[in-house]
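Throughout our pipeline, every protein is held as a single compact record rather than as scattered files. The record that follows is passed on verbatim for readers who wish to inspect the format:
___
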Amino acid sequence: MRISPKQQKRFYAALVRKDPKYVGVFYAGVKTTGVFCHSICPARKPKFENCDFFKTPEQALLASYRPCKRCRPLSPPGEASTLINTLVDAVERAPERRWREDGFKNIGADPSTVRRQFKKRFGMTFVEYARARRLGRAMIDIRKGKRIIAAQQSAGYESGSGFRNAFSRLMGAPPAAKHARALAAAWLDTPLGPMIAIADEDALHLLEFLDRRALESEIGRLKQREKSTVLPGRTPPIDIVEKELKQYFDGALLAFDTPLRFAGSAFQQSVWNALRDIPAGETRSYSQIAKVIDNPTAPRAVARANAANPLAIIIPCHRVIGADGALTGYGGGLARKEWLLTHEARMAQHKKVQS
């Protein structure tokens, strides 16, 4: 996989600005130190002439570069530390537990380290995470018909007023069945950077790269449409999509079976269904999609529906290109789009050879 001089300059510019949209797209070898890095490495940037660029970690290793200890290019970027995984697992095992600083010391963790790592990864402290998880489980119980007092107790709240106050701060309303709608959100590590998955108990509502522009607005519209809040947690559809994404990035899966919830207009849904019919390894233009949905004069509307797709990769909007063959826009960045198309073409060719 030869990297052209033009690509090398583009990759170097991404390295200098620490562009997360190029994570997994290339790896930079630094001749003066002998290490290779992710595009987001925080280390001081080398000169262009002191860089080698590679498409895979294997290529960098074969060129005698060793992995950088700061950005750890052999691990998914932003991968959770052992400490975070340990505490998240502890919350799942005993969601009713009320955590205090002495609890961290019992597992050999420094409270300030816990606070800093959770704030960086989840945008909240561990105590806030654990509280949100407790309330999320309580809301699921209420929606299933469980009495509020029982949900309160299972969430670890001895006081009814304390439970209602916590609920009201989070939801803006006291607990009642009609207000108890909650969606679970989970961080998923991928070779192209972290993604966020949001789902209820039955279907996946959103899957996006965390650095997508206007992601907060997209989540806000989802919350308003579903009349819900979004809390840290996991549901069966999130577990399914995490497993399928791993298989996809490993080159072993071309189509997803994760249950989905389409929440767009009738036109948007017709476009998204047409996108799912594009075989992996192939592309279509906006005009071609417009003809497929029997609306040949609407390529611009198709482009807008394509951009509004809330389920990246699963609804493969990256398979739509310009009529002239140009990659055109992609919410996750053109570098990722190019990587995904190359990856799928390779998978499709491998499947064809096998058959």
